[in-house]
Write a structure and sequence with these properties.
Layout: H1 2-19, E1 24-25, H2 28-34, E2 43-48, H3 57-71, E3 75-80, H4 82-91, E4 96-99, H5 101-105, E5 115-121, E6 127-128, E7 130-135, E8 151-153, H6 159-171, E9 191-192, H7 196-204, E10 210-214, H8 215-220, E11 236-241, E12 245-246, E13 249-252, H9 258-274, H10 276-279, E14 284-288, H11 292-299
Parallel strand pairs: 2-3, 2-4, 8-9, 8-10
Antiparallel strand pairs: 1-3, 4-13, 5-13, 5-14, 6-12, 7-10, 7-11
Amino acid sequence: MRPRLLCATAPLIVGLLFAQAGCHRGAGGASFLSLFGLSKKPVVVALVAQPGVLDPFTPHEKLRMAMGETIDRPVRFDLCFPIQLEPNLKLGFHDFAIVTPACYAELNDRERFEILAAGVDESGQVAHSAVLVVAADSEIDDVSKLRGKKVAFGPRNDARTHHAGLVLLGEHGIQKKDLSLSLLPMPGSLKHFSNMREIALAVQNGDFDAGFIDEVAFDEFEQSSDVEGEPARDRLRMIARTIPVPGMLVIQSPKAKPETVRQVTDFLLTAGQTHPEALRPLLLSAYQKPTAKLCAWSERLAEPPKPTEITPDDAK
């Protein structure tokens, strides 16, 4: 009977093995063994696929290992597409997820996915803005004057230089359709640039009327430069700032067990002191508990932009 039993269960075992062989990093074997009580069930953290990021696992590897050692559980990082994130969290396939503020804002039931921590960058900031710049000699001195103009945006879906930029324009009564749009990759597209240097040069050379630049990158430009083809702050003029936006957020599944949530939260909020080497590949110095105001500004990225007199100073 035993050979027959083995033959009968073999397809199930093979199927389970293939189910664990998705795009993930760490604890794959532990996931399978946990089904038979031979290993602790792994904590599964989702990494959401982002355009241009070919390998999200390597920068997070030290964080994964440190988390597993601290909570004494196997930890697996899974890659998922944005459309998969919400159902996977609701069903408990993922216990936690590391997401951009823009990705978080697009969740339909955001109130079900508590933000446990927000990354603090190497300069000590948990959130910062993008600046809207024009050429130093431009006649444009107000956001409302960009109607019909060419505006350069950062990478597609970037929280600051794309989504927060649209929010800022909307606060001044300008919608996407009111801008001079690009024909490529399809008619009616915003013009996205892959890095801040390209945006600065496009604006200071007069190819674009204005552009959104991450304020950290803007501050790193030389104040002045005699080198042709190099951005310089004295060739640009800032006319507005977007709302402050955090970097990466860690959110929880409503199915995650309270003890696991406590352990992971404690690990994250102390990682800057206990495991700084695990944060360096992510260009972070720490994680901190987000304030209610910070969460509210993240949620703003999903709202239809409306004219308002609120300024980014209100987020401080």
